[in-house]
Design a protein that fits this description.
Layout lengths: L9 H4 L10 H7 L6 E5 L7 H4 L5 E6 L2 H13 L7 E5 L11 E5 L11 H14 E12 L5 H7 L6 E8 L2 E8 L3 E2 L4 E2 L2 E8 L2 E9 L2 E2 L3 H10 L2 E7 L12 E8 L8
Parallel strand pairs: 1-2, 1-4, 2-3, 4-5
Antiparallel strand pairs: 5-14, 6-7, 7-10, 8-9, 9-12, 10-11, 13-14
């Protein structure tokens, strides 16, 4: 069994709400009807999954972190949402074969960027292809790099932590920092270290460090990645407020199986 790298940080995940994009209403508007089935890849703590349940008939969430899934399931239970409406399962998003097809597949908040290898990307795309209904669509997103490739290679790594946020908790506070000191310059994969420190008064009671990969794509590359795997681009945005593709903070693309009728946007 693989190590759950998010086990220590899972309980802090929802506290980072200030850094999340305002994307829940965006995804809700993509659900084609209340009879639709939705698959969320990398559902985590259910930040997006739980609010979408009331807008569709059924939603399946897949994540490899049992610690994150535990929180998601607790939210579903607290909202009295049963397994006939939503299920959160452990699984590898690069190697799943659900027993049903889905009208909408999502992987919110840059999930695809955590996949380091081409084999993982290939696996994800194959899973999407197997899981889409005949008329279904998928939406993937990555961040839009603010620096060109040479500047990113030159400037991203640095010594010293960067403060991100502080939150009051029972008995003290949690402070979150990021340390960006390693990257794969050839493949443009960033390796930020997310640091969570819990204090009781002035005493450091706990420290958790989460190391994750963030593979970078630029606007043309991200679109080419999708079309190269046999999908047809339907719509694309630069963010969740309708920004033009390539001009906003995100790269968001909605696509379908290529054999469907339609045209590129």
């Amino acid at each position: 069994m693989s190590i759950d790298i998010r086990a220590g940080a899972a309980r802090f995940y929802d506290a980072t709400h200030a850094s999340y994009p305002n994307d829940i209403e965006f995804y809700r508007n993509l659900i084609p009807s209340r009879r639709a089935s939705v698959l969320e890849l990398g559902c985590g703590t259910g930040r997006v999954l739980v609010p979408l349940v009331r807008s569709c008939q059924f939603i399946l969430g897949i994540d490899h972190s049992e610690a994150m899934l535990k929180i998601c399931r607790e939210k579903l239970s607290a909202a009295a949402i049963g397994p006939d409406r939503a299920v959160a399962e452990a699984g590898d998003i690069c190697d799943i074969s659900p027993d049903r097809k889905f009208d909408l597949i999502t992987a919110p908040y840059r999930v695809i960027q955590n996949l380091e290898t081409d084999a993982q990307i290939e696996g994800l795309m194959n899973c999407i292809r197997r899981s889409l209904s005949a008329g279904g669509t998928c939406v993937l997103n990555v961040f839009n790099p603010v620096k060109d490739k040479q500047a990113l290679r030159r400037e991203w790594c640095h010594e010293g932590e960067v403060f991100r946020w502080e939150m009051e908790v029972e008995g003290g506070r949690v402070m979150h920092y990021e340390h960006d000191r390693h990257m794969d310059r050839d493949r443009l994969i960033l390796y930020p270290e997310l640091i969570y420190r819990r204090y009781e008064g002035n005493r450091l009671a706990e420290e958790t460090v989460l190391k994750i990969p963030m593979r970078c794509w630029y606007p043309g590359e991200f679109e080419a990645l999708i079309t190269a795997h046999g999908f047809r681009v339907l719509r694309k945005w630069g963010g969740y407020a309708g920004e033009a593709y390539g001009s906003g903070p995100e790269l968001v693309i909605q696509f379908e199986l290529a054999h469907r009728a339609g045209s590129h946007v």
